[in-house]
Write a structure and sequence with these properties.
This protein is of the alpha+beta class. It contains three helices and ten strands; from the N terminus they run E-E-H-E-E-E-E-H-E-H-E-E-E. It has one domain: Cytidine Deaminase, domain 2.
Length: about 160
C-alpha cells in the first residue's frame, strides 16, 4: 500500500505535492494495531504560488504525550525544528500545517480536529490557512483550513 503524493483542489488550481520521505514517515506511524498510539507533528515545506510542496514531517518525540484517541504534541520542540528549517533555508521552508494519525482505514476529521486547525490558522502571522492532514490505515485526509470560513478538502490528483 502506497500513499498518494499529489493532491488537488479547485479543479487543479491548488496542488499539493508530498515528498516520498514524508510519505515514508507517515507509513512508519500508521495506526495498524488497535493498541497503536496516535502520532503526529508539523508539516514543513515550500509555498509555490497557489501550490504547496511538503518536504518534511516532524515526528513524535519522546517528549510528546501519545494516546490512542488523541495526540498532543510538545509545541515548543516541534516549533523549534520549524524555526530552524526556516532560518537554514532563508525563509523558504516554512510551516505548512499539522499531521496526525487516526485508527481508521479512511480517516475523517473529528470536531476537535477542525476546531484545532482553525485555531492554529488564526495564530499564523502570515495569515495563510493551515493544512490539516490525517494519516489513516489506507488513505489520507487533507484539508486547508482558514481562520474563518469553510476549509477546502483536497483529493488525489488524477
Ligand atoms: Zn484527529
Amino acid at each position: 500500500m502506497q500513499f498518494v503524493a499529489e493532491w488537488s483542489a479547485n479543479q487543479g488550481r491548488n496542488l499539493i505535492y508530498i515528498h516520498p520521505a514524508v510519505l515514508a514517515v507517515f507509513q512508519q506511524h500508521i495506526q495498524a494495531g488497535t493498541s497503536d498510539l496516535e502520532g503526529g507533528g508539523l508539516l514543513l515545506g515550500y509555498v509555490r504560488g497557489s501550490h504547496l510542496e511538503i518536504v518534511e514531517a516532524t515526528v513524535p518525540t519522546k517528549f510528546d504525550r501519545r494516546f490512542r484517541a488523541f495526540f498532543e504534541r510538545m509545541q515548543d520542540l516541534h516549533e523549534h525544528i520549524a524555526q530552524k528549517r526556516w532560518s537554514d533555508s532563508n525563509g523558504l521552508v516554512r510551516y505548512i500545517g499539522e499531521w496526525h494519525t487516526h485508527p481508521q482505514d479512511h480517516p475523517s476529521p473529528s470536531g476537535t480536529d477542525l476546531t484545532e486547525w482553525r485555531k492554529l490558522s488564526a495564530k499564523r502571522k502570515d495569515k495563510r490557512p493551515v493544512l490539516g492532514l490525517i494519516v489513516g490505515r489506507k488513505t489520507m485526509y487533507l484539508e486547508s483550513m482558514p481562520s474563518d470560513g469553510d476549509g477546502t478538502e483536497f483529493y488525489p490528483a488524477k
